[in-house]
Each structure stands twice: as C-alpha cells, then as structure tokens.
Amino acid sequence: MNNYLLKALAYDKQVRIYVVRCEEALNEIGERLNYFPSALAAVGRVMAFTSMMGGMLKLEETVTVKVDGDGPIGLIMAEADAHGHVRAYSNNPHCHFEYTDMKKLNVKQTVGTMGYISVIKDLKLKEPFIGTIPIINGELGEDFAYYLAVSEQVPSVVSLGVLVDENNKAVNAGGFIIQLLPNTKEEVIDALEKKVNNLPTMTELFSSGYSIDDIGKILGDETYEVVEKLPVSFQCTCSKERFGNGIISLGKKDIQEIIDQDHKANTVCHFCGKEYDFDEEELKELLNSAK
Questions:
Q1: Is the pLDDT of residue 56 over 90?
Q2: Could you tell me the pTM of the whole model?
C-alpha cells in the first residue's frame, strides 16, 4: 500500500498529525481528462488536502473543497469521504505555468491570488457546515492553514506538494497537516515550529525515499502513535440516475425544449469523464417526473 492516509497523535496527545500520499488517484484523473502539468499540480494539492479533511470525518460524512480563484484553471473542486475515497476536477485542465527563474510549476499563477476557498462538510445533519475564506496566497498550503485557523479555529500547519514528470504524470503527490489541540504547551509549539521550518518540501521528502510513516515519525516525538491508516483511491460517485435527476431539476419547459430540438441528451461527468446518453423515450420519462 503506497498511497494512503496516516492519522497519528504525538506530544502526549496534544498534536494531531495527518500525512497523505495520493498520486495514484491523481494520475487516474489526469489521464482521463488530459491534465497539463501545473493544472495537475494544483488539483493534486487540493486533492491531498481534501483527503486529509476526509480523514477527520466519521462514517458516512463527506467533505467538498472548492478553490475558485482568478487564475486560468478556474474552479477546482474535490470531494472526499471518511473511507479514503476522493475525486476532483477543474474547469480548465489544459493550463500550464512555470516560474521563470527555476524549473518549478507555478501553482500560484495557475490558481490565481484573488478569489475564495469554501469547505462544505455534510455531517448528515439538517444543514451542511460551510466555511469560506479569501485566497491569501494561491500556493494553497498557506491558504488551507488560514482556513483551518479562521473557520475551524484550529491552529494548523499545512504542507502540500506534487511532482510532475515530463510525461505529465505525478511522480508523487501528498501533504501533511499538523493540528494543535486545545491547551497545547508553548514548548511543544516552539519545538514544532523549529521542526517544520527546517523540513524539506513534500516532494523532496517523497523523492528522497521517505515513506508516509517516516514523515509522520519526523513530525512527531517519542510519544508518537499511529491511530489509523486508510488506503486512498479515486472513486467517482456519478451514475446515470444522478444525471437523470439533474435533468429533472431543469424543469418541464427546458426538458421539452431538449426533446423538441435535439431528441436526445448527452451528459459528461466532470470528475471522471464518463458519458451518459439519454434517448428521446428516456427524456420523456424524465419529463413526466419533472415539475
């Protein structure tokens, strides 16, 4: 199991640690929809963060993360559950930028520096929890840390990274979140700050051969204990029935127009690229169910 989510406690249970590696799920999306390098890197960072947010959930709860910046990639959206399943997409997978002074993908220019990040948690209550913050950086790690501190009031460190090769494939992708629990001692905070400031990037750690477990232990101390490990995999929840319900939601007038003008409908899932076709008879059945 190379791609999984690690959940751990350290510093006498004053600190929560999440570490994830997810390039297999990311490459499945990249290959299905022909992602360019910096777009793949941006979506991979959002996917890694969303996977870790999913790891904070219970049972059938789900989380959706939306990054809507002013960069050319447009909206990035990722969804995850508590069982390691994740999916993601962007409005424009065909954009690519590098920093001019170094051979490094420019996620900030891809995402943009103006816009909003929203996190929607479906906790199976009457209303979902929604937290929204402005994009403050565009590289996303700092942005997500700001979200956790402001919207969830949990001081956190977030590190994310995606390394893409010349064939537009992610060699590695992942990240970590360190969260301080209430009443964390000052000496623990100081020790963590020194440790994080001296750490290589996520892509450097993975490329140097460090495993998810190795990174977790580096972030922890002698009281470090693993709570759970979850395989991370791409899973799309699309179905013809879901798209049919989407067509029904258009209303009778719009469905009738589709029947009169096109006599059929072709729908495509943004997440996995799968197509669902509806013939005229199927559209008439949906029309009868519409308001």
A1: yes
A2: 0.91
Q: What is the pLDDT of residues 136-179, one digit of tens each?
A: 999 999 999 999 999 999 999 999 999 999 899 999 999 999 99
152, burial (CB in 10 Å: exposed 0-12, middle 13-18, buried 19+) = middle
Domain span holding position 264: 240-289
283 in the same domain as 175? no
Cα–Cα distances in angstroms (integers) from residue 272 to residues 36, 38, 88, 196, 268, in the given order: 16, 19, 9, 36, 8
Classify residue 156 by burial, with Cβ atoms within 10 Å: 0-12, 13-18, 19+: middle
- Examine the domain organization and report whether 200 and 247 are in the same domain: no
Q: What's the CA gap between 290 and 189, in Å, rounded?
A: 56
Q: 218 is written with which tokens? A: 């580096």
| DSSP per-residue letters across 188-245 | HHHHHHHHHHTPPPHHHHHHTT--HHHHHHHHS-TT-EEEEEEE-EE-----HHHHHH
pLDDT 10s digits, 23-42:
999 999 999 889 999 999 99
- Burial grade of 167 (CB within 10 A; 0-12, 13-18, 19 or more): exposed
Q: Once rounded to an integer, what is the mean pLDDT over residues 73-95?
A: 96
| Residue 242 CA from chain centroid, whole number | 22
> CA 87 → CA 18, 48, 220, 276, distances in Å?
19, 10, 29, 18
Domain count, the chain: 2
CATH number at residue 49: 3.55.30.10
